[in-house]
Write a structure and sequence with these properties.
CATH topology: Aminopeptidase
Mean pLDDT: 93
CATH class: Alpha Beta
Structural class: alpha+beta
Shape: globular
CATH architecture: 3-Layer(aba) Sandwich
Helix content: 25-40%
Number of domains: 1
Length: about 170
C-alpha cells in the first residue's frame, strides 16, 4: 500500500474513533486485552488477576474523579483510556487491543480525551522501550520531563521509564 492510500485509510479510521464511558459490559473484553503477553511485554506491565482487575475497575467506575473511557472504532471496543490521580498528580493511561495497534487509534483517542480533560499539567509514564506509546504521547503534545528507574511492584516489572508532561 502506498503512503497516500495509507494516509487516507488512517484518516477514515480516525473518523470512526470515538470515546464513551466504560460500561460494565466492556470489562470482560478489557480484561482479555490486558492478558495479552505481547502487549504486557511492550507496555512493561504485569497483567492483573481476575480478582485484582475486578476490584480495580469496581473502584474506578465508582470514583467520580476518574474519567474512564472506552475507545470505540465504529461499534467495536478497541481499548480504554483514562485520566486519574497517580502519585498525587493527574495522569493519563490507555490500553489498546493489539489488533488495533499501528493505525493511529491511540493517538486519536488521546486527542479526544484531551478535549474532555482540560486539567494541566497532565502526566504520563511509559517504559522507554515502548517507542509507539512515547510517539503517541509526544504527538499529542506531551514532552519528556525526565527518565527514571522504577523498581518492580505488583503491576510493573523494574524498568527505565519516561515521565512525560503536558502543560
Amino acid at each position: 500500500m502506498d503512503r497516500i492510500e495509507q494516509s487516507d485509510m488512517e484518516r477514515t479510521l480516525n473518523n470512526l474513533v470515538s470515546l464513551r464511558d466504560v460500561a460494565r459490559e466492556d470489562l470482560p473484553r478489557i480484561y482479555d486485552f490486558q492478558l495479552d503477553p505481547v502487549s504486557n511485554r511492550v507496555a512493561v506491565t504485569i497483567p492483573r488477576s481476575a480478582e485484582v482487575f475486578d476490584a480495580h475497575w469496581a473502584a474506578a467506575l465508582q470514583d467520580p474523579h476518574i474519567k474512564a473511557k472506552a475507545i470505540v472504532v465504529g461499534d467495536i471496543l478497541a481499548g480504554c483510556i483514562s485520566c486519574f490521580k497517580m502519585d498525587g498528580v493527574e495522569a493519563v493511561g490507555y490500553w489498546l487491543g493489539r489488533e488495533f495497534w499501528g493505525r493511529g487509534i491511540a493517538s486519536r483517542a488521546l486527542e479526544l480525551l484531551l478535549i474532555e480533560v482540560t486539567i494541566r499539567p497532565l502526566f504520563a509514564r511509559v517504559g522507554t522501550t515502548n517507542g509507539a506509546s512515547l510517539r503517541v504521547l509526544q504527538k499529542c503534545g506531551f514532552v519528556v520531563e525526565r527518565i527514571q528507574f522504577s523498581p518492580a511492584d505488583d503491576r510493573y516489572p523494574e524498568c527505565e521509564e519516561a515521565l512525560l508532561i503536558l502543560r
